[in-house]
Amino acid sequence: MTSLDTVLDKDGVRLTVDDAVATVTLTNPAKRNAQSPALWRALTEAGRALPGSVRVVVLRAEGVSFSAGLDRQAFTPEGFDGEPSFLDMGRGPEAELDAVIAEYQDAFTWWRRNDIVSIAAVQGHAIGAGFQLALACDLRIVAEDVQFAMRETSLGLVPDLTGTHPLVHLVGYARALEICATGRFVHAAEAERTGLANLVVPAAELEEAARDLAGALIAAPRDAVIETKALLSGAVSRTYEEQRVAERAAQGRRLRDLSGTAD
What we know:
Layout: E1 5-10, E2 13-18, E3 21-26, H1 37-48, E4 56-61, H2 86-91, H3 94-109, E5 117-122, E6 125-127, H4 129-136, E7 139-143, E8 147-149, H5 164-171, H6 173-182, E9 186-187, H7 188-194, E10 199-201, H8 206-217, H9 222-235, H10 240-258
Parallel strand pairs: 3-4, 4-5, 5-7, 6-8, 7-10
Antiparallel strand pairs: 1-2, 2-3, 8-9
Helix pairs in contact: 1-3, 5-6, 9-10
């Protein structure tokens, strides 16, 4: 695939690929990259369109804000063109509502696939769905002006775009509850201190920092990174003994592969 090949560009999402590194860009800075069902479907499509050569995916956004969250037009009676309004969805059958939300969640789930490592490069506001999109990634590099907030409760809603699981595992139950229930802002220093951010840099250095991290991630052999990611992501749900067994199995696969005796 040629350098910087544009694979997808629609509904506020652009996917470009440069060898082993793909970049997903939110491209509606005029609306602070507010999110809609169309954008979520485009994000899902971007995940499905990744070439097999891609090892790292960088998520970034144009403009001063990463994402201001859900476009409030969703709560108007007319909703979005060609889409049911969220108010109408709430009046429909429970099974249909569950299926629609599950479809929306698909945009947030593929970022943690074992065959890729995802990096969110976050500047300015990352609110609600924007916060959850950053949380969907494996790693987060943030600008010094970053402002995370989970504002769903202020709208009478709950965070439902897969953000609660990583948030609790990163900062703990008590802090996650306080962040979500109050809707307060989490700034760069706290994000780095609590593990929400891997690195804080000046806004002007954000893209360069993401490129440097992507380069470091693809320096190691791909299969070793895939096995290591699977080990670490599964460690939360395993007992200590189960993790020991998983480590032995993974190392056995790597040694057999290196010795040329893989099945």
